[in-house]
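Structure first, sequence second, as always.
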């Protein structure tokens, strides 16, 4: 039996991440990012895998978790679009900072929706990076924007 020499630390973002309104498989993506375990190209190369070290979504930069989810032109445009609908400003200094920036004083239902949105965007970026590639993702979000523009917002 392995005994920890220190008590388990409760991180301020962990209670935000594991909520009932978000599937654990979606929350797990952000948990992986927070602990530096996301299998991005930089991590795969550090483990000896031979991979092309280019962002799969923008094709411009070396793929790291911060680049893929925050600074890649594709992810950046997605976050800017989402920011225009949110009632709060998102902090893009790190992936966890984005999650913490929706932790604001409001009803629990609104907070759950905001957290769900952020977690699902991280998941969508990862899903598109691994499944579709940038061409299909652009088509998907184009259709989403078209549907969104037809919704009555009042």
């Amino acid at each position: 039996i392995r005994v920890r020499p220190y008590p388990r630390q409760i991180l301020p973002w962990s209670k935000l991440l594991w909520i009932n309104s978000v599937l654990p498989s979606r929350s797990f993506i952000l948990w992986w990012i927070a602990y530096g375990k996301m299998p991005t190209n930089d991590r795969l190369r550090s483990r000896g895998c031979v991979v092309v070290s280019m962002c799969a979504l923008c094709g411009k930069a070396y793929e790291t978790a911060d680049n893929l989810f925050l600074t890649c032109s594709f992810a950046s445009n997605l976050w800017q679009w989402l920011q225009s609908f949110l009632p709060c400003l998102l902090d893009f200094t790190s992936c966890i900072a984005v999650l913490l920036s929706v932790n604001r004083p409001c009803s629990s239902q609104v907070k759950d929706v905001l957290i769900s949105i952020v977690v699902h965007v991280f998941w969508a970026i990862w899903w598109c990076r691994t499944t579709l590639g940038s061409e299909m993702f652009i088509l998907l979000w184009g259709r989403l924007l078209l549907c969104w523009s037809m919704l009555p917002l009042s």
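Margin note: The mean pLDDT is 78.
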